[in-house]
Amino acid sequence: MLKIKADNLTNHPFTTVILNWYAQNKRSLPWREQRNPYLIWLSEIILQQTRIAQGLPYYQRFVRAYPDVHRLAAASADEVLRLWQGLGYYSRARNLHKCAQIVAVQHHGHFPDNMAALRTLPGIGPYTAAAIASLAFNEAVPAIDGNVYRVLARYFGDETDITSAGAFKHFYQLSLAVLDKGRPGDYNQALMDFGALFCTPRQPDCRQCVLQSGCVAFATNRQQVLPVKSKKAKIRERNFYYVFMLYKDKVLMRQRPAGDIWQGLYEPVLIEHDRSQAFGQLQHPLLDMLHQQGLKITWQEKNIRHLLSHQLLNVNFALVSLGGQETLATRMATGAYHWYALSAVEALPKPVLIANYLDTRVNSINLQ
Description:
This protein is an alpha+beta fold. 42% of the residues lie in helices and 13% in strands.
């Protein structure tokens, strides 16, 4: 493990080179044009676990819809989730909304100007707090994310396991030791950009790398070994069978409860089974009742495999029209399930695979 001291890495060549590289190669991004903490915060939340190419259109839509924190705070939760739809990790959107409300009311629309105070707000972890504090307020704190772990571990030959309990503190201190205290925002953004563009996880561009002469990983041919990451996330597999119940111009849907994926999003009737089954063999009281009523259940032919961060969903869809059976339609609208006009479903926040299914099948639905 690399031993570091904050007083012996001042003006380190690593810092000089990375800042010079950034000055010539930094990406042109709208939130970098001014030190607006609201725009920086918004970009950081959207880009957590999201590539810039995917996240930038969402950022632009949010800025158009909510140009300041007061507008975002005044929006409804459903409006925020609907605008977020397709980005995944929906807890980010819920925390985004909560944070905006706290900043608007308790802080009178002004974000705290330091990392410690920013950390008290919903959805703002150590990395995001440091990014906002350094970029917007010039606080000399390092922002540590996956890109930074990778660049520092490779350059300094650091074998600290980045999944270990002490990894964040260790790399925070390492980055702090070489941080340019006068330009912390540029330093943090330089590491982010360099890790995203050059020092990539699988195929780093070492031949063109400006840090090559001092990089321990390059000198020892350990680019694919560093950073050390021992733990692998366990993937939970689940089997979802969605049944779109149709009655006149309405669809039966519910808002997903707390404590599971997609909290607060809307979905049709869900049957979850502990093992994957062909739709013709699936047994469930709801399906038995529909068959007894003589209703046809039309299943899609292909199972959809939908990968989340720690879950793999096997998803099937079915369509069932209740025709004119008003009594049955009334019975089914119980508990969390309610009938929503098909024309209104578009505005509801939904998991992206449900939205995609509606987009591809809505014109073929024959409502009676």
